[in-house]
Here is the input.
Amino acid sequence: MVVSKGLQSCHSTWCFFHLVFKAMNSDSEKSQLIKPVEKKCHTNPVVSCSACRLSDLCLPIALNGDEINQLDQIVQRGRPLEKGDHLYRESDKFTAVYAVRSGSFKTYAVSDEGVEQVAGFYLPGEIVGLDGISSQFHCSSAIALERASVCEIPFDRLEDLSIQLPSLQHHFFRIMGKEITKDQQMLTLLSSNSAEERVAALLVSFSTRNHIRHMSATHFRLTMSRADIGNYLGITVETVSRTISKLQNQSILVVNNKDIEIIDLVGLKKIAKVRSV
Amino acid sequence: MVVSKGLQSCHSTWCFFHLVFKAMNSDSEKSQLIKPVEKKCHTNPVVSCSACRLSDLCLPIALNGDEINQLDQIVQRGRPLEKGDHLYRESDKFTAVYAVRSGSFKTYAVSDEGVEQVAGFYLPGEIVGLDGISSQFHCSSAIALERASVCEIPFDRLEDLSIQLPSLQHHFFRIMGKEITKDQQMLTLLSSNSAEERVAALLVSFSTRNHIRHMSATHFRLTMSRADIGNYLGITVETVSRTISKLQNQSILVVNNKDIEIIDLVGLKKIAKVRSV
DNA sequence: CGCCATGTTGACTGACGTCAAGGAAAGTGG
DNA sequence: CCACTTTCCTTGACGTCAGTCAACATGGCG
Here is the structure.
């Protein structure tokens, strides 16, 4: 276990998808041979699951070529969303959950007074849209922070399959459970940690989540604005900016606008009160 | 809809239980006549479901006498817990979720440094224990704030039944979804509201939840300490105390130690930024 | 009755918010 | 490609809300 406290990674989400994908194709009788494909960039909206770079995260549990081939027929992929496009909006009817394929999203809700509250950030491999399950309507909006694409999983189909496959149901319960424990860790962060600890925890979270996706844990780009970060962490833009500058002065980070390089990851984790084992 | 923002009530949890209870008994072939029973106090640990005061919350959807009668065989009820007893502890194996029958609980986690963080309060009719689903181990402890009793629902049985009953599965997904949206509303509260707004929101939350249970929305007892409240809301004991005194000076509350009387519920909701419709 | 946990209130402090100014980056139109 | 505007980011000065420390009150429990 890498992270004991602080923001939690969404590692297990993909385990869920093996099951979905496998299940959605298990009734197929066709058995055609497919040859190995060179892995293409997953940002390509037309790339098949079999050729997707994320497939080793997404499909490690026995899923045969035929099943993968069928996959593309079932998971719905639209054209990519541009920066600023909404995946869904608050009070839209809930119809599906989405796996982020490429790019990143933020979810947010707007209060009666018109004040925005950022609820979360979602990176490739993570599931967005669970907020609509309870009431059948989304209670937050999801917006692309950059050019992005998703795999759409219609929720009624998912429920049908879960009836057929106990292990899929079990897995989706766990995914939702994970969202609950993640939120509760976030509650702890907000209710007892300083501005510096919050910013550090968020950076460690991005680092960990990048690492899981086989990307650099120490060098990445923040796709969201300082305002979004502050809003999410319950602090002001100015405090975010000052905190990041402070971390840079301590030689923990090198920052160039949205480009972040973590020089001292151990030190950062110490500040974030995250323990690596 | 009564509450648009702020802490959310757990109203729908009971709707779930009709289904569980109905399902758990639907295979029964016995059909014995039972006579109507006078509703007894639900704090009585040996009282049957048919005689439980909460039954009109718990079982409004067609559940016949026979089914109710069978119910007692399946839902596990232990002896009541005393104040300070643990329902489960952090890192216990997860085996069941619990419906609070009487009394109240708090859940909390302890950080590496030994600092306690209160994660929630649970009143009769609410479900506690969902935090263990994702990892099969509880990541928080649940402790009785007063003499209390619960109905224990073994989770593996619940999963089995959910396979048989699509509507049960659907409902449990919704319950978990509700927990997620509740936590996200709490995140908003912690990240953008003042101490006064937080305390007001918590009091409104208790008021609403009491009202659902057909108890007074304006006069109740806080079973948790000021320290617990402060910890939960991310403020200190002193601030909680000062805030409550301030609300009393404004003639919004009359407070006598743990006994709270809300004089101006509309005013309190205004402070809490909760809109009643 | 006395002890210890819990709650209240006051004085002081400090972390973070607010206000303000200036600069860098990104989008826009010619 | 370059002006132009707009948005975003950074930094400084100052104010304030809530934390800290301390003293005392209250109440539950042995």
Summary: Residues 194-195, 235-236, 238-239, 242, 257 of chain B lie near DNA strand D (CB under 10 Å from a C1'). Chain B is about 40% helix and 15% strand.
